[in-house]
């Protein structure tokens, strides 16, 4: 059994992550200074009480990567009552047949894991069924920067095609950025993480091809063990779970 974190610990962890983000942001190369990185608190497998505690300490963006768990949490009466400004990020693999479970959820902010034209097209088609016609669904394109077979995401050389599709064929979607998970346990003593270099390169290509300002396209990269390094490499959206909420128990 893993000990449940006390509320005070979770709050202190959050504050320490904020401080580390601020410090890493100040130390970034000048070219990245214009954008403040956003913290995504990844609450998967963690109880509603922890989410409320972290929300009350001022955190607004939360990430989940299992569909049913996000459904349960986003519709939880206590969360609806106490966390009115919560912003949910879906960061797991999204199957086409689960789209209609996710899209109606209150306070859904973004799907970070779009990795095919088919998925983009279905999201684009379904979104108006759940929201006003003038609202757009935020999406990121997930890229498999490490080329590992078990990882989801498109290949880096496919990003301009999928970006083209989202930008030009999906009027109900708003392209918010690019996301990668990358290789686990990369040893930083070998130099800058190649996954982060790759994701930034993808963004530069997309920005150049479609005449976008880089500040308008987020880079979602960096987790508990490397978020400061990711910020140094240009990340604008770090996804931190364990360092805030403590170690997770394995799902069966
Ligand atoms: C679980 C998860 C995280 C958080 O990982 P930690 O190492 O606990 O910070 C970030 N991104 C994704 C996609 C995840 O599934």
TrEMBL record:
Cofactor: pyridoxal 5'-phosphate
Keywords for the protein's UniProt record, in alphabetical order: Pyridoxal phosphate
GO molecular function terms listed in the Swiss-Prot or TrEMBL record: pyridoxal phosphate binding
PROSITE patterns listed in its UniProt record: UPF0001
SUPFAM superfamilies to which the protein is assigned, alphabetical: PLP-binding barrel
All residue ranges annotated as the Alanine racemase N-terminal domain in the record: 37-248
CDD domains: PLPDE_III_YBL036c_euk
Gene3D superfamilies membership: Alanine racemase (3.20.20.10)
HAMAP family: PLP_homeostasis
UniProt similarity note: Belongs to the pyridoxal phosphate-binding protein YggS/PROSC family.
Function of the protein: Pyridoxal 5'-phosphate (PLP)-binding protein, which may be involved in intracellular homeostatic regulation of pyridoxal 5'-phosphate (PLP), the active form of vitamin B6.
Full protein name: Pyridoxal phosphate homeostasis protein
Encoding gene (name): LOC115891862
